[in-house]
Amino acid sequence: MKPFDLQRADGLAHAGQLCADKHTAPIAGGTNFVDLLKLEVETPSTVVNINPLPLGGIEETADGGLSIGALVSNTATAVDMRVRENWPVLARAILAGATQQLRNKATTGGNLCQRTRCYYFTNIDQPCNKREPGSGCGAIKGVARLHAVLGTSDHCIATYPGDMAVVLAALDAQVEIAGPKDSTRTVPVRDFHRLPGDQPWKDNVLEDGEIITAVTLPAPVAGRQVYRKVRERSSYAFALVSVAAVIDMDGDSITRADLAFGGLAHKPWHDPRIADLLVGQSPSEALFDKAADLLLEEAQGYGENDFKIPLARRTLKAVLAEATGVKP
Amino acid sequence: MNAYFKQDEPDTRNLLDTGKQGVIGKALSRPEGLAKVTGTAPYSAEYQIDGCLEGVLVTAPFARGRITAIDKKAALAMDGVIAVIDDPRMTTRPAQGTAAAAPEQGPGEVDYFGQPIALIVAETFEQARHAAKNLPFDYEADEIGSVPLDPESAPRETDDGSSMSKGDLAHAMKTAPHTVDLRYRTHGHVSAAIEPHAAIAQWDGTKLTVHAAQQMPNYNIAELADITGLDEENVRLISRYVGGGFGSKLGVAEETAAAAIAAMQLSRPVRVVMSRQQVMQAIGHRSESRQRVRLAADSGGVLTGFGHEALVANLPGESFAEPVLQSSQFLYGGDNRLLKLEIARIHRSTAASVRAPGEAVGMPVLEAAMDVLAEEIGIDPVELRLKNIPEKDPDTGLPFTEHGLARCLKEGAEAFGWDSGPRQPRLKRDGDWWIGTGVASAARVHNVAEAKARVTLNPDGTASVQTDMTDIGTGTYAILSQIAGEMLGLPPEKVLVQLGDTDFPRGPGSGGSWGAASIGSAVLVACEELRGSLAEKAGVNSDELDIADGMLNGQPVSDLLGGKELSALGHYEPGKIADDYTSSGFGAFFAEVRVNRHTGEVRVSRMLGAFAFGRVLNAKTARSQCIGGLVWSIGTALTEALLFDPNDGHIANADLAEYHVPVHRDIPALDVLMLEKKDAAASAIQAKGIGELGMCGGAGAIANAIYNASGARIFEFPMTPDKVLQAMEDN
Ligand SMILES: Cc1cc2nc3c(=O)[nH]c(=O)nc-3n(C[C@H](O)[C@H](O)[C@H](O)COP(=O)(O)OP(=O)(O)OC[C@H]3O[C@@H](n4cnc5c(N)ncnc54)[C@H](O)[C@@H]3O)c2cc1C
Ligand code: SF4
């Protein structure tokens, strides 16, 4: 661990001012950040403890949605009765992640900003464009089991590893952000994480000095909610592939199909064409195959992760069948 | 008093059964358990020693080459750094089990990615770790591509000791009505013990004292003496509590050598603890393997040909080759036999013993192939196994000591509710999950080793046992208090067992499942001597002794002792029994799994192991060993695999987040049947090894259940969803 100054944020504006320096980073639960500090993957000169900020509440919004503060623990969100009743898929996704101990410490903001689990990113003796721009990508020619099949670039094939954000993308939640000069902005979760392109070191759209203050869920919608996480061991493992779905039907016709995917890309993957294809149709195995065709149209494997392409197809079809009641 | 027993013959006296205390075999809790769960049992790194410096190893970022210069000045300028040590005596690999000599030394020559090349010593751990990550050094790395990393294409040697040929297997394969010829792959494993490798060394100018996480101080002391150039008399090694070994702590590893050398150079105590990543990268791992199994059977299902070949890997110069074929030598019959073990020389980290070396990967593969043969013949797989249990060792012709395989298969099948009808995959489904069952045999060679222990009757009638044998979480403290208690007529809590200190008599060390039978026999021998002298004092014949609860034939033992202690050194050595028999623990595994028909995920829903390993010394600790073995079987079958980078051979998933040992949720209720039958030719206490048996084949039962459930025949362990999907029929 490189020695750093530890500062306490006295208010949002103060936190923003401190973090405006590019060698300064906020720390929330620390469950991801501290590991990376020890490995010297992260080497900030100043760390700002944002836990004193008043961002620990869950509140209803005027339009019937829910605002979840950036410092609310994953456990608190998952057990909140409003979440469990109206957005049960969110509770399920959170509970499918990490372990109880980690979820007790992990926060909304930290979870969104957690860094990739790429083996080369966390090993400072290996090349990695995300950690050290220009050093190369160890994973492309190396061990790529965890890696992305959608939206990759020649510079980086890492995945965003989290579960919660996949559901937030399906629900079309919004990220509330405070800037250094009292500015605020709102970014849809669907646009919050980036694709690697030629700047893989940028995980998301946050600029220096910006802090997540909350995530806002839109008003609840009708429909079946499903989160399916595929993994070889049944707990304490990141998704090989995950699918979040909110599907509603009117008689035999699909009226809503909000889907997002984890484990496939550098961001929770949302493809609006899939809803366009499904809505108004009557569910069938052939239709589900078409949806999978769309999803995976441009999918590209890197050897060891080739399996994610058929696995994503099968998981998507199974989730659609479950949510629409089609017997495959 | 000294007592020496060299066992040339089966010992049918069953001395332990003559005891009157009635504690042998009882399901007693371990005496050190409370201290362990309350955090008061000190592990090696936890001793508080004044002025202790902290050392962190620096590791090589390339596969093969040499260090040409180290900028020690730059490191010494960093906060808190006291020394940069790259002494040529420092070791670069762990010593293999029972080596009793230094492993490869000289950190300047690099043979694998992640090899230690220097030690930073600083005032605090954080300072040392930071400096270790930032030490500037120059090196010449051999070009990528010129360094052999892939076992398939690397130079090979044949391990003659593990290979044999008899009859004509090729002919048997050509002429038999039923044959299978199958190729399998298994991936590398690590021990993943919770306690990382750690040592604290102290040097007083003459004598070196080291607290280290070790399994075999009796060998480790010689290794450490050889590494440091000291005489054994001037080395003391202490390993009172060890937080899991599973083979990884058999030999002195890099952190202990480095701590010792640093303490000697700096004349201050030095602690070195490896990070999880370093433990995984620089301590031995189980070699990956490629295996071929050929089986030929007549129309009745009796084997006429048996072939098992394997390719494993290790660094150049390492004598250890994963003994994949160990149990294949004797498990099943077949006149035409061929065993061949080859070893590829590659530059990945050291391959060494991980729990049940050999059988852990050889048995699941053999047992998976037996399942294919059973299907080919159209016979119940339990019956196929029963038909092929040989009368004598098919290779050497030696008789077996107590052989429990048939009993385990039959009673295990009964307890599990095995359906012995014709088997066909995909008969049972619950929603999205196919359900199926599988069986496999268990076998693990039984070894017993020379051992010494001192047993002392104290003037107050209590007793103590002293040996440098270790308890690596297995229950040694408990069973030795029971053996001594039974023989000396004392409740176990009146017997103080002191372990893991080379100032005590040499035990056998914990390894190869031989610890309990060997050290237990030494304690028995010492107790027999003490009983003899008690009988003399009481004026009765030894066989008239009636001792329990500290009373001897009605008289307090403390009275007989007359204020003096009575002490005996027991020395046990296996004699001709080791040459005259083939000895093994046996068992049978039954598993039920659920396979998701969409995603290929596999979850074990039920598992039973039936085991026969001679006498049960403590029903609780023995069962725990079996349960642990079943858990490892599940890991081997479904999740555990080291992922090696193809370009530099480093282990990509070198932490517990990405190297997937099973978690609680992966483990269903596990059943263990212990089918006790005393084995007089196994040891003086009629016990055999059990620490490893519980995982010798279990993964095969799971593989067979996966096929029975889903129709997916998979030829690679672990059977992760990607492989299941690929093999599923409708893909
Ligand atoms: C072994 C292991 C297994 C795991 N398994 C899973 C899993 O299966 N699924 C899953 O989803 N997650 C998993 N996690 C990840 C876990 O969910 C994250 O570590 C956690 O959510 C991070 O939250 P935190 O508050 O601890 O963040 P921290 O570690 O404090 O911070 C993480 C990052 O976010 C930044 N940050 C924190 N708060 C803010 C804010 N308000 N505004 C801007 N930036 C901020 C920090 O600067 C840092 O870069 C696992 C973690 C571990 C260690
Ligand atoms: S995939 Fe991305 S994170 Fe991984 S090594 Fe390549 S650049 Fe780094």
UniProtKB/TrEMBL annotation, chain A:
GO terms for molecular function: FAD binding; oxidoreductase activity. SUPFAM superfamilies: CO dehydrogenase flavoprotein C-terminal domain-like, FAD-binding/transporter-associated domain-like. The keyword Cell division does not apply. It comes from the Bacteria. Gene3D superfamilies: 3.30.465.10, CO dehydrogenase flavoprotein, C-terminal domain, Uridine Diphospho-n-acetylenolpyruvylglucosamine Reductase, domain 2. This is Molybdopterin dehydrogenase. Keywords: FAD, Flavoprotein, Oxidoreductase. Residues 1-222 form the FAD-binding PCMH-type domain.
TrEMBL record, chain B:
Keywords: Molybdenum, Oxidoreductase. This is Xanthine dehydrogenase. It comes from the Bacteria. PANTHER family: ALDEHYDE OXIDASE 1-RELATED (PTHR11908:SF132), XANTHINE DEHYDROGENASE (PTHR11908). Gene3D superfamilies: Aldehyde oxidase/xanthine dehydrogenase, a/b hammerhead, Aldehyde oxidase/xanthine dehydrogenase, molybdopterin binding domain. Residues 38-143 form the Aldehyde oxidase/xanthine dehydrogenase a/b hammerhead domain. Residues 143-166 are annotated as: Disordered. The keyword Oxidoreductase applies. GO terms for molecular function: iron ion binding; oxidoreductase activity. InterPro entries: Ald_Oxase/Xan_DH_a/b (IPR000674), Ald_Oxase/Xan_DH_a/b_sf (IPR036856), Ald_Oxase/xanthine_DH-like (IPR016208), AldOxase/xan_DH_MoCoBD1 (IPR008274), AldOxase/xan_DH_MoCoBD2 (IPR046867), AldOxase/xan_DH_Mopterin-bd_sf (IPR037165). It comes from Croceicoccus mobilis.
